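Entry 14. Ran structure prediction on the chain below.
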Amino acid sequence: MKYVNNSLYLEWKEALDSGLSENTLKNAKLRKSPSWSFIDDPEDKRKVLIEFEKLKDDYKKKVVARFGNPYEFMAKKPIRDLIKWDEKAEEFYLAYRYDEDKPLSIEHVKKYTSAASMLNMLKYITSDKKQLKKILNLSLDQFYTHVIEIIKTDKLDLPSSYRRLLATCKEYNETGYSALIDWRFGNKLAAKIKDELSESVLLAMIEHPDQYDDVFIGMQYNRWAKEHNYKEIDEATVGVWRRKKEAEVTMSRAGNSALKGKFLRQAKGFRPTAPLYLVESDDNHLDLLFEDPDDPQATKRYIAIVVTDSFNDYVLGYAYALAGELKEGQSLDLVRAAYTNAMYYIRSITSSWYLPHEIKTDRWGLKNLQPFYESIGKYFPTPVGSKNRGYIENFFGSHHWKRCMKINANNYSGNNMTAKNRGVNVEVVARNKKVRPLIGNEAINQIENFFHRLRHMEQTNGVSKHAEWMEAFHAMSVDKKRKITDEQYLLNFGVVHNEGTGRKIRITNRAVEPQISGVRYSYDFIETDWMKHVGKEVQVHYDPYDMSRILVTGDQVRLMATEARLNPRALEDGDVNSRTYLNAVLQERKRDVEYIAAKVDKRKQILAESAIDAETLLTSGVMVKEIKQSAEHRLLEQTVNPQQYPEDLYDQM
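Output, structure tokens:
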């Protein structure tokens, strides 16, 4: 409030604090209503002032209810102007803790800071009574009368009697800011748990891993308290301490996982900004019940390994099987099948193979699967006991997941079999037992439709996950896409023939002909210069979903091969195409012979230019076997019958 030309005006905020509507004020100013008087503040043209006397009686009553008589309020204005907000007091009350770790509420912080600011002013004014007369031109009695009225009007947390106010001022000057804090926040009550020993005994009982109830803990604590002259407690006190010290007792009482999930600070993050930056996989027992015609008493469920893109929880791949019927090795194969399915799906929508940049999974089967994960993208094992590692677990519980599963499903079991709120009428689920889909084709059809809806059904924003993903993928720069060749796909995702057995096959002049799952396959190499590898042992990487091509690897061998074309042996089976193919094969053989002959001629030419004869090098210093044997026989006869050989044999030689 302020006087302008001897008229009393309200500030805009003071009018709002009195309960006048902001819309009422704005509309009145806009209409230039004669029942209102608005002026610009002479000291600050940005502010608007409202004349008090021009207000309607109802509005005046609201102002009086808030500030008291406004003219008396203005008479106290010089005193109010001396009250300065104490930032140090505010800082003290914000930092204050009681019961070791509890802060004051913001309401109490403001209340105590306002009281401290008033007491600071009283200390300043009353320290020199000459100032009181000089600054305010008031006697001490008049001053305190106005101060008490301000305390009442502003509802300060200070005594409204002169004597008690003086006592509070004395305590405040001696003690400081803490003198204003209510005893309820100052630990001044006699505590039943009064020292470190009693507290340690109680908390040790509370944090026991068997998680005893509050009543039992109270009983056992009181037995100890009687023996050691401590006050007894009830179960309510145990509950208070259990909740107050929950962060300290949770690790022992509930385990590391509970501590991490509720108290330890989480590293916050945001979703990947583009497709294939982060891919996750996890298992999910699908909440769909199926019947087995060979076992009418049993209800079956399927377990699925799901691969999602964390960009928008888009399902890239999946593989599923009947729960409870998988051996460990088959479960590992199910994970690999899910990623293979993802790669095929990515190729079907992008026309090429693309790898993700990073993979996140749980720790199941990690010893065997980690090399597989690392061959696909960056992989960092999830720490033991870690929760909320990514987004896929939340996706399994999302509304979109549940909606897609419930549609046309009379066999939906609900959120899970033990949940209190299963999200389905369990009585209807039981009644539908006789008409549920059967395992096999009916189950496969329903599950495939479910995953199709996850990808293509519109979300609440009116856009499917498929459309979101494709738009973002096409917007990516080429250098951010990890495109791979067919050869790389087979190397990373192909099944190694006879892996673990140590058995390999050899390259022959028929290329490679592995026997896979009891079927003999024949392949021809794409590369023409493969004769140098004939006889080498190699491994075959094949794609069980597409046996039309394989990758052959070995010592300095890496060749792509495609399914061999077989030519008819009988003339009657032949046609133009078969003859064309045969001619091509014969022509290739002719080229190979010519290639080999050319190599031989070139070697002969190089030797001739250097006057080197390979035959001479081979036989030099070597006697023909028959001549050697004849000479040895004749020498032996000459030794035995020298008269028959008048000439020396060595002379003859």
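Residues 1 and 508 are 105 Å apart (CA to CA). Will compare against last week's run tomorrow.
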